[in-house]
């Protein structure tokens, strides 16, 4: 393979759903020469991981088979540090190393009024979005430090890492937490040539995004079409985000052009999120 990521090995968590951000990120890196590990939870484990919201084993394999560069799959529950460490070691065993790690797995489908959020709801979101990212960062860093050739770690945060949203208390808290996690990790890992950054997209209509559109349109008593129209009207560039917008930002931060950027939380919001 040729391209600016030729010879690099990349892991993308939560990349096992068609049309999702994870698939778009994996495809962009693959198109530029990286060898990919497609990872997702594979099957429902509990009420917080319904089959309708996760990447199944067969879907993971289909995505990997469609990529233009070599790829493998590895089931991983990011809530389990041993499972995450096994994912990092799979990259080494199957492909000879680990250069790029993207913490993309997340829960964005537990949305309730503040008074209705249960302790289990809260823990489910924090465990995947923040603690899971921490496990991934730690596992990736251990391998990258051991290899001694640097690396790139990217967290897919959100506009919710910068601003609050109703019915998204745990989600917003988890994404704000990624800002602090990234800043601290970047300081520690800089001496090893490892950069750590967040990408913060605004709304993207993936499979999860479509569910969110319906959820919030119903709350406001309007159609999905009207909800999307109002959303576009408040974005300076006139449209919600696309999966490719986030994938492009990830590719930039993983490239040589992004080598001097670390500890940052990059907005990819069409101007909607200015800080």
What number of domains?
2
Distance between the termini: 38 Å
Q: Assign an overall shape.
A: globular
Please give the order of strands in the largest beta sheet.
Answer: 3-2-1-4-5-6-7
Examine the coordinates and then state which fold CATH places here, giving the name of the CATH topology of the largest domain.
Rossmann fold
The overall average pLDDT, rounded, is 96
What would you say the CATH architecture of the largest domain is? Answer: 3-Layer(aba) Sandwich
Count of helix runs: 8
What is the CATH C-level name of the largest domain? Alpha Beta
Task: Report strand %.
Answer: 5-15%
Largest sheet: 7 strands, parallel
The CATH H-level superfamily of the largest domain is NAD(P)-binding Rossmann-like Domain
Q: Which residues sit in consecutive blocks of at least 5 with pLDDT less than 50?
A: none
Helix content: 40-55%
A few lines on this structure:
The protein is α/β, with parallel strands linked by helices and 275 residues long.
Structure description:
With 275 residues, the protein is of the alpha/beta class. The chain folds into 2 domains: 9-204 and 242-265, NAD(P)-binding Rossmann-like Domain (Rossmann fold), CATH 3.40.50.720; 205-240. The protein is 44% helix and 13% strand. The chain contains 8 helices and 7 strands; from the N terminus they run E-H-E-H-E-H-E-H-E-H-E-H-H-H-E. It has helices spanning 21-31, 57-66, 81-95, 119-147, 169-189, 207-220, 224-233, 243-254; strands spanning 9-12, 35-40, 71-75, 100-103, 151-156, 194-201, 265-268. It has a 7-stranded parallel sheet, with helices on both faces. Strand 4, helix 4 and strand 5 (151-156) form a beta-alpha-beta unit. Helix 3 runs parallel beside helix 4 (119-147), helix 4 runs parallel beside helix 5 and helix 6 packs across helix 7. The longest helix is centred in the middle third of the chain and has 29 residues, at 119-147. This is Meso-butanediol dehydrogenase/(S,S)-butanediol dehydrogenase/diacetyl reductase. It is an enzyme of class 1 (oxidoreductase). One of its GO terms (molecular function) is diacetyl reductase ((S)-acetoin forming) (NAD+) activity.
């Amino acid at each position: 393979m040729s391209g600016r990521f030729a010879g690099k090995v990349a892991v993308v968590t939560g990349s096992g759903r068609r049309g999702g951000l994870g698939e778009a990120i994996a495809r962009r890196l693959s198109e530029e020469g990286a060898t990919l590990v497609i990872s997702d939870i594979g099957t429902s484990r509990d009420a917080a991981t319904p089959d309708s919201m996760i990447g199944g084993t067969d879907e993971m394999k289909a995505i990997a088979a469609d990529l233009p560069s070599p790829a493998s799959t590895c089931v991983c529950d990011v809530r389990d540090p041993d499972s995450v460490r096994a994912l990092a070691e799979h990259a080494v065993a199957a492909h000879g190393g680990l250069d790029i790690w993207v913490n993309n797995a997340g829960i964005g489908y537990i949305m309730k009024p503040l008074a209705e959020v249960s302790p289990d709801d809260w823990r489910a979101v924090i465990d995947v979005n923040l603690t899971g990212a921490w496990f991934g960062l730690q596992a990736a860093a251990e391998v990258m430090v051991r290899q001694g050739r640097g690396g790139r770690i990217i967290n897919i945060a959100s506009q919710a890492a910068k601003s609050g949203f109703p019915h998204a208390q745990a989600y917003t808290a988890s994404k704000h937490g990624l800002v602090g996690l990234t800043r601290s990790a970047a300081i520690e890992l800089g001496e090893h040539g490892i950069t750590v950054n967040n990408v913060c997209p605004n709304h993207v209509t993936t499979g999860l995004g479509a569910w969110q559109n319906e959820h919030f349109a119903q709350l406001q008593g309007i159609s999905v079409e009207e909800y999307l129209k109002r959303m576009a009207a408040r974005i300076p560039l006139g449209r919600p985000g696309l999966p490719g917008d986030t994938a492009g930002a990830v590719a930039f931060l993983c490239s040589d052009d992004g080598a001097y950027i670390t500890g940052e939380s990059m907005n990819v919001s069409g101007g909607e999120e200015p800080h």
